[in-house]
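Morning F.,

Quick status update on the modeling queue. The single chain you submitted on Monday has been processed. Sequence for confirmation:
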Amino acid sequence: MRRGELNERRDAIIRLLCAQDELSAQDLAARLNVSVQTIRTDLRELDEAALVQRRHGRVRLRQPSENIGYAPRMSVARSEKQQIAMAVKPMIEDGSRVALGTGTTVEACARQLAASHRDLFVATNNIHAVIALQGASGVSVSLAGGAVRLRDLDFVGAASRAFFADYMVDIAIFSCGGLSLSGDVLDYNTDEIAAREAISTCATRRVLVVDREKFGRALPCRKHMIWDYDVVVTGADFPREIMRKCQEAGCEVLRVATDERPLRA
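Structure tokens below.
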């Protein structure tokens, strides 16, 4: 089996568990039209990656007090994150000043910018984004200081908040831990909330990038609503009420399609 098909099936498992809370291997096998043994292999590896939890023949998503490790997150919604990055790319001109937040979706955006843009100034608290930008033409990067969060190779504490306060950029691109069904923007802890608030206040245009797996995810900390930002780029299909509030607030929702063409919602 091709690696892409394997990733797509495991992304589908995560989506089903987001929607159904808890399922059995038999349920998942029937819905995805594969054998129970195939699903059990998938679940074993997803469990080892700390994405799901198996108990008494049932499986559910883990809901930790902080996000799962960085490497496992890279395999979740991989194709969608690439589509999001492709949709963000035209928003940025050569020579722009850009702030980049933390997370795997933002890293995907950084990789697209490195391949296509010149002479950017980038302020970031994301070491993965710095590495992604290494080969960009004429790029200038300023990195936040302070204590490194080694699990994610980023900075989200007080030093990160002070860092972004020193800049004014054209566009900020950042993510979040989750989105409630009513439109709250959520995170795992107050440090991540503070870092997101800091990056969102240093930019003329604020772009939230979030894959559809995060919509409906219940997390303990909240700050802002979806429509408080200028643009939201996602694969999620928001309810009509959220779309109405976004339209009223002047927030553009750019939904990426499965065929990798962005659709304006």
